[in-house]
Structure prediction request, 496 residues.
Amino acid sequence: MIQVKNISKSFQGRSVIQNISFDFEAGKVNMIIGESGSGKTTLLKCMVGLNTIDSGEVLFDGRNFYNLNFNGKKEIRKEIGMLFQGGALFDSKTVEENVVFPISMFTDLSVSEKKDRANFCLQRVNLENANNLYPSELSGGMKKRVAIARAIAVQPKYLFCDEPNSGLDPKTSIVIDNLIKELTEEYNITTIVITHDMNSVIEIGDNIMFIYKGDKWWEGSKQEILKTDNQEVCDFVYATKFMKDLKTKF
Amino acid sequence: MNIFFHFGRYFILIKRAFAKPEKFSIYVNRIFEEMYILGIGSLGIVAIISIFMGAVITIQTAFNFESPLLPFYAIGVAVRDSMILEFSPAIVSLILAGKVGSSIASEIGTMRVTEQIDALEIMGINSAGYLIFPKIVASVLFNPILIIFSMFLGIAGGYVIGVMSEVTSSHQFIYGITYDFRPFNVVYALIKSGVFAFIIASVPAYQGYYTKGGALEVGRSSTKGVVYSSVLILAFDLILTKLLLA
Ligand SMILES: Nc1ncnc2c1ncn2[C@@H]1O[C@H](COP(=O)(O)OP(=O)(O)OP(=O)(O)O)[C@@H](O)[C@H]1O
Ligand SMILES: [Mg+2]
Prediction:
């Protein structure tokens, strides 16, 4: 479980996150949704110290991240698997080397065991026969999937995914959603998923936080989000005609 | 004000780069990798520059020394001393600052702006240690080898051009390069090249590591890395010469 308490963040005097608190539960898929530029990625980066924060606390199962020294923070980070919005693959390494990298850094497995583990992760994201390609030779969606495979390579306790299915076709998107859900429940991972995709929210979202211009505007479950009459949330949820039609049916 | 900020941040980064590695074997591999890229990859350019420098010094010395009062071995001595004392350690290091420095700054800068450094950090890896430490070690270990290589080739270049263009004879030149040879000069050159190697790897790495923005800024970091490391090499050249030879 990760608890965020009263986090605020501004860039050069421009406030981006205002006083957000939330409990991200273990074994659940916690979703952060909100329009583009609302501060979702910034919030996620604040939680792991990639952005500094102006005020607030982040507790990883009770451990106060910002009170820890450099090595203490490193220990927590070893338990995190993170998918960056842009993938952030190591472009000097092949697909397989990218996935093997965290495994060889933190385990003492033999070369063949490492490869097996990497291939297992790549299979789970539906990516086979791409092992020896470099990131520059991959499509956008393939990059994303390699990045997911890398994030789950060392069985994280906390899994952060910044838009895991942007750039994926609907079918692969569902595979990835289900993978995230399965892993979360199987290993009791505290999973945080940032998404724009209402399908994913309805498909796998357990707890949902809606961010609006840097404020936590709404929180609740996926059943609740379909029924809420909060104007900004409705504008987001029912932005497409498809969803609007869906609403009138109920 | 600004300069103190950069100095402080530079030293903090270097300290972090020298923190205890997460896994020793991986760092050792990284050092060999960097030696190959930074060291072996520079042999060609060092060879070309050294041969030409040696040749040019020979011709220039011969051209300026047309007095019968000067001993016949003067050309050999001049080539040897200029190569060992200044050209090999300083000029070659300046060239390397351009070649190696720009590649280090743009590599690390690109990793910064594409969030690869963040990805390392989030895995619990000390990114400064993983990226910068192997480059510094490889550079400091390999640069002296490059410098020795450069001295030999420079003197050889001088010999060949001198004998071919008949400004000196083989016997005179060889007598010259062995005349009153001081081994300390080579030690002095190696000390200098070690210090320069540290600058060549660490200053561009610093510039790259703190790149903010996108591709344009990566280019800027790379330029800054080369300019600052070149200026620092010249400054330390003066300081070390004063300390070691005065
Ligand atoms: N490093 C930075 N420096 C200055 N401003 C920043 C920085 N990073 C983000 N911002 C600003 O913070 C705001 C929120 O950005 P953020 O990336 O968190 O949005 P987001 O919700 O993730 O959007 P998207 O869905 O498009 O990814 C934006 O207005 C952006 O301009
Ligand atoms: Mg984002």
Observations:
- The mean pLDDT of chain B is 93.
